[in-house]
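lol so apparently i was supposed to do this last week
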Amino acid sequence: MERRKILKMLGIAPVAGSSLLGAELIAGTSSGASPLAKGGRDFLKELGVRTFINAAGTYTSMTASLMRPQTMEAIMYASDKFCMLDELQDKVGERIAAITHAEAAVVTSGAFAALTLGMAGILTGKDPERVKRLPKLEGSGMKTEVICQKGHAIGYNQALTNTGVSIVMIETREELEKAINPNTAAMHFLHINADNGKIKHEEWVAVGKKYGIPTTIDIAADVPPVENLWRFNDMGFDWVAISGGKALRGPQSAGILMGKKSIIEAARLSMPPRGETIGRGMKVNKEEILGMWAALETFVSIDHDMEYAKFEARINNIKSAAEKVHGVRTQINHPKLGNCTPTLNITWDPILIKADGNQLREALRKGTPSIEVMGGKENLSITAWQLKEGEDRIVAKRVREVLQAAI
Ligand SMILES: *Cc1c(COP(=O)(O)O)cnc(C)c1O
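anyway here it is w/ pyridoxal-5'-phosphate bound
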């Protein structure tokens, strides 16, 4: 598709000499209407599906994030062309690997699929019989155990056990070295929970190297900081899994598996176009593959300090508005491991403000425009990184109103 047509579809007038889809367009619109929908069908309205301002964050249930124009350009470009799926994965994989300091990379259908396929690659190597056999490990000669720290145990480990392995939990360095045995396939690390484990990244990798056990890491929600894209490859983890649809703002259904060439190549054997594999249902199409690459390129090119300052300014606007209500307390947190974005915590004196968190969130949800925030029974938790320009003012106003109304 030619540039003029793409711009037309995006509802953008082409400007002579401007860089295609520049930073001013990343900002989005102030209305809440997608530029794509301008003048076109309002599909969600037709369906009666509620749309909302996302002051919550990159949650799968809320469709996570919005793709940038650069990503949409790649997706629309791809939708009009045929190419060989493997050739596209080869070439995009090389580009992604160069950005992330990995030996190799592949676009997967999310971080969850990256975890499953990465583990499959470790278990099967390039043996086609083994690939076909997963997840039936018994009697196959494949290893069967993955070691994980207790503080790193989360539901997403199901992605690993889907290959047939079981998780062996340990807490100390001593327990770790005791747990390693001839059935140990890998040692898995969860970056966002690094503070909950006694063993830190470098030591984890060092023990793996000492015993010849591959080390793997889930950093699904852990950019920004942008350096995390290469930090764990540089550190020596055998593979790294990341979500494409969270802060990277690629397709929600995409992710990246990156790491040692031999393992990535082995993982590819469990991926489409090959059938008879556990990964056949984890297909990514050419639109997602190109979209993921474009999203990654854009992400590494933007000024993340400026972005962070922008999100912080928005959060400060919401904070000041909430504080105007008598009995409200606010605090801005700066998560360091994952979901690294200024996060506003709002609490209140229940004697003065007679509503719980659920009732306040319902009021925000039912208002116009509808707004989603997070939190529990006793707090509201708000982020600004998924807001469009100007939406912080709407959120500020509505948060103040619903708190005031509960007095
Ligand atoms: C979101 C998330 C996943 C799953 O990522 P998808 O891209 O949605 O498949 C896995 N692990 C962690 C820690 C996550 O936060």
